[in-house]
Amino acid sequence: MAQYTLNILRPSVNNLSARVFLRAAGLDFEENDVWGHTMEQEYLDKYAPHLTPTLEDPDLPEGTLGESVAIMAYLCNKHGLDQFYPTDPGERARVDNANLYHTGTFYPYLARATYPTLGFGQYAGEVGPSEASDELKAQAVKDATAAAAESLDAYERYFLRNRKFVGGERPSIADIRIAASLEFLRSIDFPFSPRIEQLRSDVEEALGDAYSEPAADVRGFVESVKSPA
């Protein structure tokens, strides 16, 4: 029996970052695809927010932990994986800053820009899932795409300034998180800057199959929505 169980949805970039990390870290885990089961009572009893990914570990206070960044940080702290999550206060703050900027600013724009094409449910209270006209929804996607570009430009100018990765010379959990998210932007043929494209490529090159193997699930899904049968 594996030490950890990671509950996942294969097409998701939020899940991809945790899937990549556990492989790159060489941890003993098994994946459990819970597509279509997150609202069942068995899953809700483990994690009431009914989101993925979730990590099952009896050492956790509730036995289950959600959110990809929280999962990666927890496992780094537990196993002393300083190469992914530095212990130096300033360097760790930099990684935390990048992850919080990703979650609070960049990803909401990405979701609004790509979820209509990907066929994913959108945030309640916004234009996408409302009864607004198709014209307004199309404008919302256009505006979100522009905002995603602006936030990536800021990410590049601040977090990648004079650095190969946010983590310095090797990928941190922040680099894994942003690289995974970029995969969804390919669904709308997003115009990546050369530096952001290089970051994604560098993360994959540095991590090898640990990145490429689970990323194939996301890439296959993206291609299927871009070129429906």
At a glance:
With 229 residues, the protein is of the alpha+beta class.
CATH topology of the largest domain: Glutathione S-transferase Yfyf (Class Pi), Chain A, domain 2
CATH architecture tag of the largest domain:
Up-down Bundle
User: Which runs of at least 5 residues are low in confidence (pLDDT < 50)?
Assistant: none
Contiguous helical run count: 8
Q: Report the helical percentage.
A: 55-70%
- Percent of residues in beta strands? 5-15%
Number of domains: 2
Instruction: Average the pLDDT over all residues and give the rounded result.
Output: 96
Q: What's the Cα radius of gyration?
A: 18 Å
CATH uppermost class of the largest domain: Mainly Alpha
Distance between the termini: 39 Å
Order of secondary-structure elements: EHEHEEHHHHHH
Query: Quick one: overall form?
Result: globular
* Number of E-state strands: 4
* Biggest sheet record: 4 strands, mixed
Strand order of the largest sheet: 2-1-3-4
> Which structural class do the helices and strands define?
alpha+beta
Give an account of the 3D structure.
With 229 residues, the protein is α+β, with helices and mostly antiparallel strands. It has two domains: 4-79, 3-Layer(aba) Sandwich (Glutaredoxin), CATH 3.40.30; 89-208, Glutathione S-transferase Yfyf (Class Pi), Chain A, domain 2 (Up-down Bundle), CATH 1.20.1050.10. Helices cover 57% and strands 7% of the residues. The chain is built from eight helices and four strands; from the N terminus they run βαβαββαααααα. It has a four-stranded mixed beta sheet with strand order 2-1-3-4, with helices on one face. Helix 4 (89-118) runs antiparallel to helix 5 (134-159). The longest helix has 30 residues, at 89-118. The protein starts with a strand and ends with a helix. 34% of the residues are buried.
